[in-house]
Amino acid sequence: MVRRLSYVYDPMCSWCWAFNAVWQEILDGLPADIEVRYLLGGLAPDSDQPMPAQMQQSIKAYWQQIQRQLPATEFNYAFWDECQPRRSTYPACRAVIAARQQDPQAEPAMLLAIQQAYYLQAKNPSDEAVLIECAADIGLNTSLFAVSLRQPQTQQQLLDELSLVRTLGVSSFPSLLLQQQTKTELLKYDYRDPEVLLSQL
Description:
The chain is of the alpha+beta class. It has a single domain (3-198), classed as Glutaredoxin (3-Layer(aba) Sandwich), CATH 3.40.30.10. The chain contains nine helices and four strands, in the order βαβαααααααββα. Strands 2-1-3-4 form a four-stranded mixed β-sheet, covered by helices on one side. Helix 4 (90-102) runs antiparallel to helix 5 and helix 5 packs across helix 6. The model has no long low-confidence stretch (mean pLDDT 97).
């Protein structure tokens, strides 16, 4: 019987970026009967307002905290000087859905492209132009992608996914859940050691 491992994340979640390396190791070590599903958590709704200075300082502090705990995690702090930050992750979430619609296997690549644009290249994934550039980087049809990104159905799909995540009891990211038959279990994980999670499968 197939068991499902759900990875709940937000493309602009700093701790999800910090988890990325060990997540790849987990994927490489999964038992054959595990099916992986990605679910979007949606940290922040749409907004065209500049991020308040206090919030900018708080997020920069998260980045610094992550680097103290996990020195291999890279951040490009030029983002805060070169971009106009907005507290809005829903556009990046819709971009992942638009990528899925074009190619169901494209989600991990789109996630990584958004993360690299944000954390390494100091680009703002709250901006549509950056998301279209990410789609181009992973070989998607950018015309189709741009249409999907703006469709009401894509927004509704995101809202439905966020509702599912709430139903599963998830409130922080990343979260990993093992689902088998009618049972759903929230798994423990470590940012350095994939075996902490793999040993629970």
